[in-house]
Amino acid sequence: MKNIRSTLATVWRIAMPYFRSEDRWAGRGLLAAVIAIELAIVGITVLINQWNSRFYNALQDRNWDAFVSEITYFSILAAIFIVLAVYQLYLNQWLQIRWRRWMTAQYLGEWLHQANHYRMQLQGDAADNPDQRMTDDVKLFVDRTLNIGVGLLSSIVTIASFVTILWGLSNAAPLHLFGQDYAIPGYLVWGALIYSVLGTVLTHLIGWPLVGIDFRQQQYEADFRFNLVRVRENSEQIALLRGEDAERERLLVRFGRVVENWLAIMSRTKKVTAFTASYNQASVIFPYILVAPAYFAQKIQLGGMMQTASAFSSVQGALSFFITIYRQLAEWQAVVNRLDGFEAGIAAARELASRKDRIHVVEASGGGAIDLKGLAVQLPNGTPLVNAEGFSLRQGERTLMTGPSGSGKSTLFRAIAGIWPFGSGSIAIPAGAMLMMLPQRPYFPTGSLRGAVEYPATKGTYTDLEIGDALRAVGLPKLASQPDEHGHWNRTLSLGEQQRLALARALLHAPQYLFLDEATASLDEPSEAALYRLLGERMPSTTIVSIGHRSTLDAFHARNVALSRDGDRFALENGGNATRF
Q: Does the residue 479 lie in any domain?
């Protein structure tokens, strides 16, 4: 019961925001319509149950007029039932896509808000495979929540409707055994209840491991799919290294987990299916066994017997709701757990950015320098990496930062960008200043070249003339004439061309502070020099901070600082004056 309450509380927390959102009236209206139709269908089922008595009595009495009348009546009920079933499915699907669209937009917004997606990875990405959680899991959550919720409501209403009928039939057809009548009030109701409770308990005892197995199956499927995508994205490097055999082995190991877990699902599902199939088959004849003695003792007519069997079947089916959908329940609970974990991961990333013991990025009211005050950058596990005190990146100054690999140069850039929270101290950035970080391997969204070079600005921010001029300036004249060509630019362009395209992006955006993290390392030295001269000509007032290892870069920077190890710290040497980093 504790697990049930916890799961239902989680479902309520995940589901209710939609019905309180800006789309709440459409959502509530569609949900009310689906529920109303379901109640109407239950009402028709009650009418058909009553029809059973009259129809089979007409057959027993060989009453042709009554037979024709009941056939006509049933045809009308069946037509109404068909219309209701069609529109219930239609409205249910309409509600599903609206609900799913809202949830997907919310999760995307929270996941991408202020680098939450990045901080989740820094924390180990406990909410693995966010792509699956925002696609398959959201879809399954909406579908299963509606189907299970409406089904449960239908079962409750069905029980309430048919228990009264079954109770009355119990009095009309008392339990008849060995030539004696036994007046047990509502014995048919108690029979259905005992039969259903036993079936539910046994089904749960057999099938409860499916919850954990289903959870792992979704995890293994997502992990296998993610690694397939990784192979596709890095196909060139794999081909160059002749790594196909290694990748095949690695992927088969991951797929082996999928197969192994699927076999566990098969084994457990076989046991559940064997029991539920036996249970369902037995439920067909069980009501006849109970009421047949009264029928053969001529206590009731054939119509009464058929109505009793129909009512018993409805009550037993409603009471056995959890047996019928046990497999869906197990899958649903696994989905709920995964979405709950995803929300917890987002909340943890958000908390990481707001806690007090972190690096604070603040706006400076005056001046044009980025000031690092008491800055102590750490690794996620708390290991000291870079300490800085009283260091400034002055406006308009060109600074080259060098140092051994692993000394924390790139991490210092991440801290200045505000996405690395681990550490203490503050970084004061002039109010309204625009910072742009260009890494060694830039990112370009799949789509038009225009969208790639304008990113992260919206499409149409810059004219064709501006885009073409920037592309020609950085040495990509062939691309300048085709801004609307679509492609996967991180795959179709060489790394050197990607770096040129990234610098074209910088020319368009013209930030006040430009950080180049080995952003020209894939270019030859003459090309690199030409691009640095271009930046000097086109962006004379921009503060440029570069990370690089080539001595030829010294000529393009007025200030040269180097990180060197000093015990467990790094010292930043600047013209003979050492600043602790």
A: yes
